[in-house]
Amino acid sequence: MATNDGDSMICPGTNDGLSEDLLGGTSFKKAKIALEESFGTKDDDKVDGDNNLQNDKIDAYIEELGEVNYYTCMALIFLNPAQEFETFRGRAKIFLLPAFQLWVPFGMCWYFLVQKNMFVENGFGCNHDNYIFRFTGFVTFMYSGWQIIDGCDDASSRFFLQRAVAHWSLTGTSYALKEVFMFYMCYISQTLCSLLLLIVTYIIYTTESDTPLDLLMNCVAVNFVLDIDAEWMNDRRQGKSQVAATFLYKRWRDACVDPDTAPMVHEGVKKMPFLRRNASKIIETEIWVLDWVVTVGTYVCVVGWTFCPAKY
């Protein structure tokens, strides 16, 4: 970590420790200094006897990142021009993953709520009032809800989203805005998946479960969908993600000295200062709101399903 003005600590690639006038600022020089304080410089790159890159700042950044899921892996590989998906299955999963986690749950919601007119035909609550059935449903629904809440917390996409937004706030470059968009899509995909699976679980528990065993089986059947993006990762893909993450780190670090990106920063710092100044606050607020929507929605669904009288 480097210090800013001797008192505050800067977290690499985020706005932590940066003075407010740097966010959305119009000074190329100040942006350059801020990036150097946050990321270091090219001089920090050392090569050991085995011709391997050694950089303590990059090592700490990769360690903080941890493991990524398939959404974040896709975004990283798309952003790194030196990498690509090597197999047909790898490319096919780009379409299959959102289809499985987003379009299938959405289709199920549409089928039951609109085509089957669930609330008119079945009502808002479960038609079974047996206490064993309701207790089993409460326990399994709560377990499923906690899985959904945990699944919504995609640390890897937030890690890059926060840093991409911070870089755009400082530099205003178009490539940084592309990074923001891609990592935002990774984040919002997980959040939408969590909300859709919460609704699907409520629907299945209300209309498609007749015994406690049905509740248990349906709980397990729905929960696995949240984990697909992690299950499709392996050591090789984690390694490719780390290589792409290192590429991003260096592009952020060298933005004001690289001859290909420095002119973009010169132009970028003059654009949209108000939006750039407030971009991080907007993203953090949205993340906070959506986290609460998923959490509160989960407990409302669990309590509502458990205690709603059968006659409703």
Task: Describe the fold and architecture.
With 312 residues, the chain is mainly alpha-helical. The protein contains 13 helices and four strands. It has helices at residues 28-39, 56-65, 70-79, 88-115, 118-121, 131-152, 155-171, 174-207, 212-223, 228-231, 235-253, 262-268, 273-307; strands at residues 2-4, 8-10, 46-47, 53-54. The strands form two sheets. The protein has a two-stranded antiparallel sheet. It has a two-stranded antiparallel ribbon with strand order 3-4. A hairpin with a 5-residue loop joins β3 (46-47) and β4 (53-54). α3 (70-79) runs antiparallel to α8, α4 (88-115) packs across α8 and α8 packs antiparallel against α9. The longest helix is centred in the last third of the chain and has 35 residues, at 273-307. The protein is elongated. Mean pLDDT is 83; it is low at 1-10 and 15-20.
Keyword list:
mainly alpha; two-stranded antiparallel ribbon; 3% strand
Structural class by sheet pairing and helices: mainly alpha
Give the distance, in angstroms, between the N- and C-terminal Cα atoms.
58 Å
Q: Please state how the strands of the largest beta sheet are arranged side by side.
A: 1-2
- Tell me the radius of gyration: 23 Å
Number of helices: 13
